[in-house]
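Notes taken during the Thursday session

The instructor put the following on the board and asked us to keep it in front of us for the whole hour. The protein is NAD(P)-dependent oxidoreductase. We were told not to look anything up and to reason only from what is written here. First, the residues (270 in total):
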Amino acid sequence: MDSPLPNRPVVGILHPGAMGAALGSALKARAGAVIWAAAGRSHATAKRAELADLVAVPDVAELARRAHVVVSICPPHAARAVAEEVAAAVADRPDPPLYVDANAVAPATVREIGTLFAAGRVVDGAVIGRPAWEPGHTVLWLSGPAAAAVAALFDGSPFAARELGPDLGAASALKACYALQTKALPAVWAALADAADAYGVRDALGEQLARDGVDLAAQVAALRRRADGKAWRWAGEMDEAAAALAAVGVPDGFSRAAAQVYRRIADGPT
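Then, after some discussion, the predicted structure tokens were revealed:
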């Protein structure tokens, strides 16, 4: 099957945070250019893009007009709005870009995004791992009719691209299930520690858990280190994971509770 992309496509990254900059850098070997939209972005974002050697264009509309592939990597709550902005910019293009939604959203969310673009032009992406500057740590799962074309762009890159077939939403479903283990379960430590504090039994609980070989203070500290600066984003991810579970009749309270925990962490001490 012929690729829907030219040999050296222009790739647009929305927006180059830590993960977006790493994705953009990984794509440079196979792209004709990797561009990003500078309007309204922070100095920190601009610096990351510069260090990753990405090319600035004025705004999202210009990026959407020039790119053969647009990769959206943004906070979960913004995924739909970003997709709508790109869809509006390419509405009159005879050759619309492939749109890769690489956000931590529910399958239903990415399917809704799929309706904004021409049939077969949206790819569902799920990054599992940290921003990858060397191979062996991070996997990019892809699903949708054009998943193979996007996966080929990452050949030989630090991101190991894996295809999950043509169903839009499969990659997001995998990410949501995986997030139960990486984010929902660890949130239990913060919840039980907060409850023990409120009841005045934190020291006793720590002593009892120590008999089971569990260091409560270490578990809570590790969670807060991981969540530092990210808790607000993880809350949105847990909301989307909850929606993914509820859609297939699986209890979603784990993820909804985790979202509340991360909002408390993001808000800081009260």
